[in-house]
Every structure is written in structure tokens, then in C-alpha cells.
Amino acid sequence: MSIELVISPQGHLLARKLARDDAPRDDHAKRILAAFAESSACGLLHLATAELQAGLPSALAFARDLGRAYLTRLCHTPGLEGAKNVEPVAAPPAHEFVTMALQAPPIIGAEYLTGDVLAGWWSGLDELVREEIRCYPDGAQAYLQNKNPLWRLVGRVTFHLAENKRDVQFPFAFMATYASQLSAQGRVQHQPLGNALEQYSGAKNMPALLSLLTPIQRAAEKSAWVKELVDAGEIYHPLAWTPRDAYRFLQEIPVFEESGLVVRVPDWWKDRRPSRPVVSVKVGGRGGATLGTEALLEFSASVALDGESLDEVELQSLLAAEGGLVLLKGKWVEVDREKLNEALKHWKRVE
């Protein structure tokens, strides 16, 4: 990358073009230079959001680590969802800043880097972010989503629904996780929700634990299904599910999201709901240019999926389904067995 970081004698963090380059050669460098031209805090925020997963030289990566540590603590702030007036984010203990300064990679002006300088960078970043949140129309979580969607997941509970086609009886799996932080590569690190009880044990971490579990409590107030899982303690463990369980979960996704939970489901539900079988009626089975009385009285009813008629075996498997989801022709089909049966009975009566 054609830029380098510089620490001024006053402790300001600056970015500049390398002496041998007349102009930055890539978009990353241009964006970083523009951010640091506004302020050190803007530069740190840019590195920890827009350049979160970019490959950076060691000095820039070091600065990004500070910004990432700050945003991680911000994401764990209780009551962050929807908040516009966020309290100052507490900085790490002074000795951690001292250790961080001693472990810094080669940076121009590194002799000016101290724990107090790093604390000043943190304070400036905190002021900038909290001011931007105050001015953002939809609050802190929406602000983080806008800066980088990955930060929206940190400090929050996610409900996962996955397929396990190898198990015929229980072809789905459910798991509740929470994201404590991002990895060095900028990937969300999910942990089983049960781990949070251990990580946040102790009075000093109780506010963080309550903040983490509050969305689940809100969902339990609206969803009998979630309340059952919470009361039984099963919300903290992976679960094997039948199609009926999975369909019940899928129907309540709006409730989960309104409560502040993140939901991950298979692509066939997220991108486009599963196909539904429909009863189709064909009037007139004989050839001819006109449609006479006999032709009108001659019709056949069938069930089709995506325009393709189902045979009797496939139809019976749909009518035998009890869970709302049926695996047919290699894909999941959404079935309302009662309505499908009523439609078929109606046309049988007409016949």
C-alpha cells in the first residue's frame, strides 16, 4: 500500500503518501488518506469499519486494532439498541494501553507513542462515534449497520436454523449463539449462548449479560415457543428439529427480529419462500375448435408444483404432511395440508 502512518510529537496519528509515490495507487489508500485528513479519530473509525477485512500493512493494522477494540466495547454497551445518546465507552485499564504501545510495530514517530497517547486516541474516537450516533436518525444499532453490517452482530444473540438432510427424522438443527467479538480477519466469532453465562458470570458483568438476554426475554413475551425453550433451559443448547419444529420457527421470524434478535435461516427461505403446491383444474380434455357443453362438463383436477403435476405418491406425501414443510423432489415445499385437502375435496364434489 502506498501510504504510511506517522505519529507527530504531539501524539497525533497521521497518514501520508510514501515519498516515492506521487499519488496513492489504489482505492483503499485514497480512502484512508481522505479519512485521516479529517482527523485521527476519523481515520481510526474508517480503518475499523470500511477497511475491516482489508489486508493492511502492520502499522495500519495496529491502528485498526485499536478502533476494533473500541467498537467491540461499544457493541457490548447495555441498552444500545435504538439508543441515540450513548454514554462514554469506558477505556481499557491504563496498563493495557502501555502494553499495546510496547507491542506496536515499526511506525514513524514511534518514540512518541505511549499509553497516554493511545488513551487520547480512544477518547477522540469515542467522542466522534457518540456524536455521529446522536445525529444518526435510527440510533446506534442502525449506525453500526451502516458503518459495517458485521458490527451489528457483535454483542447480540443470533438464532440459527440449519438443514441436516442426513437425518430423516430430524432434518433441521437449531442453535442460539452470541457474538462476543470479531476475529483478527474481521469475521464474526459465534459462541453457544450457554457460554455467555460463564463469560459474564459475576456481579460486574451482570449488566452486559442482562443486555444480551433482553431481546430473548422480549421474544418470550410475544412467542409461546420461545417461552417454552427459555423455561426449559433448552435455549442454551443445540437442538435437533423435525420439519414441524422448523416451520413453527420460520413462521415467527418477524417476532424475533422485532425483539432485537438476529436470525439466520437457509437461503431457500431467506431469498424466496419455498414453493407451494396448487390445485389446478383443466377444463375440456378432448380436441376441437369449440368449447361445447360436453367439454365444459369434462374436467380434471390435479396438484402441481412450480407448474409440474405431481403423481399420486407425491400427492399422498403432501397430504400426509403435518409440519408445514415437506421434502419433495429434492427441495422443501411449504404445505397447508388442510387447505390443500379442502380444495381437492371441493373439486371431487363438483365432479
Largest sheet: 5 strands, mixed
Radius of gyration computed on alpha carbons: 29 Å
Output the helix-strand order: EEHHHHHHEEEHHHEHHEHEHEEHEEH
Enumerate the spans where pLDDT stays under 50 for 5 or more consecutive residues.
277-301
Specify the helix fraction band: 40-55%
Number of strands: 12
Mean pLDDT across all amino acids: 81
Structural class: alpha+beta
What is the strand content? 15-25%
| Principal-axes shape call | elongated
Number of helices: 15
Distance between the termini: 76 Å
Characteristic key phrases:
351 residues, alpha+beta, five-stranded mixed β-sheet, three-stranded antiparallel β-sheet, 15 helices, 18% strand
Explained architecture:
It is a single chain. With 351 residues, this protein is of the alpha+beta class. The chain has 15 helices and twelve strands. It has helices at 27-38, 40-49, 58-75, 94-102, 115-135, 139-147, 193-199, 206-222, 224-232, 243-251, 253-258, 267-270, 293-297, 312-319, 337-350, and strands at residues 3-7, 13-17, 157-163, 172-182, 188-192, 239-241, 262-264, 278-283, 299-305, 308-309, 325-328, 331-334. The strands form four sheets. Strands 3, 4, 5, 6 and 7 form a five-stranded mixed β-sheet that branches. A three-stranded antiparallel β-sheet has the order 8-9-10. A two-stranded antiparallel ribbon has the order 1-2. Strand 11 and strand 12 (331-334) form a beta hairpin. Helix 2 crosses helix 3 (58-75), helix 2 (40-49) packs across helix 5 and helix 8 packs across helix 9. The longest helix has 21 residues, at 115-135. Residues 277-301 have low confidence and may be disordered.
